[in-house]
Amino acid sequence: MTAINIFRCMFLLLVIAFVGRSTAERVNSSGGMVWSTARDEAGLAEDSGVVIGEQDQIDGGFSSLDGMLHWAIGNSDPATLKEAAQDSQKMSLDELQKRQLELKELVEKLKMPSDAKLMQIAVSDLNNSSLSLEDRHRALQELLILVEPIDNANDLSKSGGLKVVAGELSHSDSDTRKLAAWVLGTASQNNPFVQEQVLGTGALTTLIKMVNSSSTEEAVKALFAVSALIRNNVAGQDMFYAAHGYIMLQDVMRNESLDIKLRRKAVFLVGDLAECQVQNTEKSELPIFSDRVFLKSVVDLIAVLDLDLQEKALEAIKTLLQLKSVEPSVLRDFCGLEEALERMKLQLEESMADENKRDYAEDVESLRGEVELIFHGKLGRVISKKATPSALI
Ligand SMILES: *[C@@H]1O[C@H](CO)[C@@H](O)[C@H](O)[C@H]1NC(C)=O
Ligand SMILES: *[C@@H]1O[C@H](CO)[C@@H](O)[C@H](O)[C@H]1NC(C)=O
Ligand SMILES: *[C@@H]1O[C@H](CO)[C@@H](O)[C@H](O)[C@H]1NC(C)=O
Ligand SMILES: *[C@@H]1O[C@H](CO)[C@@H](O)[C@H](O)[C@H]1NC(C)=O
Ligand SMILES: *[C@@H]1O[C@H](CO)[C@@H](O)[C@H](O)[C@H]1NC(C)=O
């Protein structure tokens, strides 16, 4: 990891040096100044403590990359850098332009190591069992940033790097597990290729168990990764079901002592799964949607005094109401949706009296009204469907 940091530092220094020079040039591009010679500059450089090896410096330039790097390191002190920028103002326009070209070429040659290289370093660090915890965390944090672009996530997956990260889910250190889940979730987001690869490692089962962690942060990241892995992924959703992921969701939604963030994420995932079902009508509906205990754990959330959670629960119920497996009579009789919606209406009216909550409460109330209408509509259709055959007899 130190290698990466050194590369980053050098690159930054070069950019600073480069910008410093082009600023000086811009100010003076009209020319007409008394410029100093390269010799003067060398003298000034010595005075200000800038280290430039004699053989490295040709006409105030640098003959080698090494020299350039030494110069950049020597200029790491901001005061020195500023002085160096002022020195450059004494150069002729030609010299400045030449310098600038040299610097451009150097920056091109030096370039940051490619993301692929950085990911490779991080992964081989992780793959080393004698790596310190601190370095392990740092490697995972690097990967967290590196896997954001979809191409990088794909590369990391192809090179087997994500397998190494998935292995970290079983680490004894909670922070390592948390970071590994975060990396896997970030890499899998909206990426069917990576989703498939990560699902192939068996990480989903481990992640589902991790949501039970006593560390809220670890649980939150694990649930994030679970969602990212199965979102719009039918195969992933089937695995999720087979691994009893719905029981985990149910436990989280019902457990009042859990962090509210976790419960919000859980009900959001329920809505997401239902939405995916609505979009894929040819896929047979997951059995969880006809599980009355599961449905009740969603409905019960609208009684929890947290507008965000209530809103997400209402959104989920609204989508669930579009599914064939969701019996409106079960929602009414077993889940008590009718009374829950009525109680919520009163509670929202109270919230609307509070100036700070009014706008949000009004939005949630409008959603609540919508859910009530859809629910009654669906109940009515069921009743009339049942009534028709008997009327015909
Ligand atoms: C840049 O050059 C102009 C003359 O064109 C001069 O007046 C000015 O002082 C110079 N700027 C700096 C920052 O030295
Ligand atoms: C991790 O290390 C093992 C040996 O301990 C090696 O076989 C494997 O290829 C390494 N994996 C990666 C991705 O570097
Ligand atoms: C693993 O890490 C240790 C300590 O950082 C280091 O000495 C060793 O060379 C590394 N092993 C490999 C195979 O990179
Ligand atoms: C989570 O913990 C609860 C209680 O400790 C347990 O009943 C449940 O089986 C656990 N769930 C998972 C998925 O490990
Ligand atoms: C609810 O969560 C708390 C805190 O994580 C846990 O200790 C407890 O076992 C959970 N209760 C149930 C019924 O799973």
TrEMBL record:
InterPro entries noted in UniProt: ARM-like, ARM-type_fold, Hsp70_NEF-Inhibitors, Nucleotide_exch_fac_Fes1
Keywords, comma-separated and alphabetical: Signal
Signal sequence coordinates: 1-24
Record GO terms (molecular function): adenyl-nucleotide exchange factor activity
GO annotation, cellular component aspect: endoplasmic reticulum
Nucleotide exchange factor Fes1 domain ranges (all copies): 65-156
A Pfam family of this chain: Fes1
Highest taxon above the source species: Eukaryota
Gene3D superfamilies (alphabetical): Leucine-rich Repeat Variant
UniProt-listed PANTHER family: ARM REPEAT SUPERFAMILY PROTEIN, PROTEIN FOLDING REGULATOR
Protein name: Nucleotide exchange factor Fes1 domain-containing protein
